[in-house]
Structures are given as C-alpha cells and as structure tokens.
Amino acid sequence: MLIPSDLKPFIEIFLFLISLHPLIYICFNKIYQSSNTRNSYYIDSDWISRFGTNSFTIIFSIILSCFVFFVHSWLLLVPLLLTTWICFIRDRFKALSRGLGAPGYFTFLFTLTLTSHYLLNTKYILLNQSHLLLLNWIIGFIYSVIYVEFGFIFISAGLFKILDTNKVPLSFALGLLNPMWSKVYLYIKFIEFNRLILNWLGPLLQLIAGLLIVSANTKFAFVGFLLIALMFLSITPFTRLSWLCPSIASLSIYHLLILNDINSININLIFLAVFIRALVYIFIIKQYFGILPITYKRLMEKIVYIYRKLMGVIVWKVFTFDIVRNVALTKGMSEIVESSESTIGLKEKESFIKLSSYTNVYDSITVSALLSSEDYLEPDLFQDRINHFCMVMGIERLISLRVSPKVASEKYENKGPFMRGEMRIFPITEKPATNRKLNYNFDNYNSREKFDD
What we know:
- The protein has 3 domains: 1-122, no CATH class; 147-324, no CATH class; 328-450, no CATH class.
- Helix content is 56%, strand content 3%.
- It contains 20 helices and 3 strands.
C-alpha cells in the first residue's frame, strides 16, 4: 500500500497499540498476574511467569518497542517479544486464563510479525558474503514461518468448524445469542432468519482468505488480508470480543503495509514453510479427532512440540459449540440461586442471561474454557479448577447455563435456546486434586490419563 513516508510510522504505531490491550489488561489486573497464592488464575507459578506478568516489565517493554517505528532496530522489540511469549504462549499452559485466549495470541503474533519485518530489513554490513547468504536464508525462513502462520490460523479456524459439524452444529449464530459474547443476543428472530448465512459465511471466508495469504502471490495475499480485515471489522459492533476483532484487523492492515516484504523472500522458503505448517496442522487435527497414523509419528511430535512451545500452535477453536454453549456469571449471584437447581425457574434464567451480558470478555474466555474442560478432565482435577476459579472470583459456587446439541440444532424461537438450557451449579468442595501443577497441553482432548487439556 502506498502511504506517505512521514505518516507511515504513526499509522503503524496506531495499529500496533490496538493489539496491546490484553497485555495492558494484565498490567492493571492482578488476578491475571502470576502469584504463588490462589489470588490469581495461575495454577503453576514460577519466577519466569512472575517476571513476565510484572507491571513494570510490561510497561517498560511496551515503551521501548514503540521506538522501533522510528529507529528501525528489531532489538528494541526483544523485551516485548519475550514478555508476550511468556504471558500468552508459555503461560497458556500454567493458568486458568489460558493466555487470555485469542486476544492474547494476536498481541504475541503482532509483536512477532514486527520483529520479523525489522529483522528482514536490517542491513548486516559487517558479515562476509558466505556468512551473509546463510544469514539471509535463516532470516528469510523465519519470516516465512511467521508470515505463513497468520494464514494457517484462519485455514485452521475455518476448516475445524466445518470438520466438527459431524459431531456438533455450527455455532456462530448460537454465539450471537450468547450474552457473554454478543451485543445483539435479543435479536432472536433476525439471527434465526439469517442462521445459515451466519454459520457458514465466516468459516468459508476464513478458509478462502487463509489460502490466499499462504499462496505467497502478493495480489492474492492482498485480497486475503483485506478479507480478514473487513470481516473482523464488520463484526466488531455486534460481538463482545473486546479488542480481538480490531486487533486481528490491525494486524491484517499492517501486513498490507509491508506486503512487499514477500518479494524479497525466496519463494522456495515460503513453500517450505507452508509444507511444514501443513504437516503440523494435519497432525494436530488428527490428534484432536483421535486418528493418528503410526508413520513418522515421533518425528512429527517433535516438530509439533517446537511449534507449540515457540508459537503456541493450536487447532483454533474460536466460537465453536463447546465454547459458546455455556453462559456463566463470574461474580456473586446469591439473588438468583439460594439452594439447588430445582428452585430455578424461567424468571431466574431470564435474570441470569441478562446479568451475564456484563461479564468481562477475558473472564468469559476463562470461564468458558474452564466449563468446556469438564468434558475431558478427570473429575478431581476439574473440581480443583472450579475451587481455584471460585476463590479468585470470591464466590461460593460457579453457576452456568448449558445448551445441548439438540436444542442448539432446533429453531431459535421465543426467548432463545439458552432459556431451554440446563442450569448447572458447581460449588466449592474440599475434594483434593492430584498433579495440579502439571504443564498442561490444552490441545489433546483424548489423553485423559495425561491430564492433557
């Protein structure tokens, strides 16, 4: 994109600052910072986590990184890159908050993209020719891996929703009826009327855009990045996803600004990055659905391990049924329930749904991930996490409404599917859990004996 050179750094810094909301939120909310006590969402705290989530570390790294748009040295981004990696990738396996979900991940990815851009455009004048060729190859490959990752996120998110339809219904329309995630949850008739379009348009556009991006053709990639930006900007007014949608859109627009970087990369390096990332995707999607082949399994496990540890690769379950089927409150609600599920009627459910629309998006991510983990965690471990969550939030019980696949598949009418949901109560108990400080995987839902979640 052609932008006046004197304006470009200010546009870039504006796009960058949009992506930093999750990190700033950690800075000013101690329950998301690492702690040895149960006063935060951390299950397993260590000095690295405490350093990375420290307010001073976050503020210092953000301020330092802002100079990169004027000084053009990738070294200024190293503290922020380490901080975002700790908060949103490494510690996703150590806290109930799951690295603040997709919003946190895109903060990390924007920082990673910035670093790769300035790394690529740095002149290494002190190296001899042979060393320079090797360094250019390494940097080109690193850039290709990071560039391709953005495209595969949307290939993965779109394709997963389609593949998962043999088990559960497509659920974007259901998500728009969930007050935790939607600002238009009362428009039941409109959402029902447009249900087919709402459910299928997003996954298909994500899949198409992702394929266009990884094609490495600048004209196709331009359309792909533009599609992603327009798609997420268009849903921003209607969803309670905080800064996620603007953050994704801002990273897409930033890619449009630096699209010529692709022309300086050997096309074979991009194809290599696409090939490796495709193998990783096939492996993790087969792992998720429990159909892993024996051939090259050990080799692929090592490659996937590297991708997961360094880049946080997952199957990208965003707005999927197991997430949006639950409605929960994260604050005290004794006025709604005093004794048991049997006392809760339609009036209480209606009040519950209305109050849940005030839930903070990061708390929504935390509680939704927690409730969905009941499907694969051992009962004692799940109860331990309920206890931990309730203690952090200062509540005696976690209450939720859960919609069944059958209800979610039926016509949305009257006051919506959540009025027909099952009210569920999870009180704090003294039941102990074993191995509560394991380094949880969060991806392999079929290995209960390893506590992988």
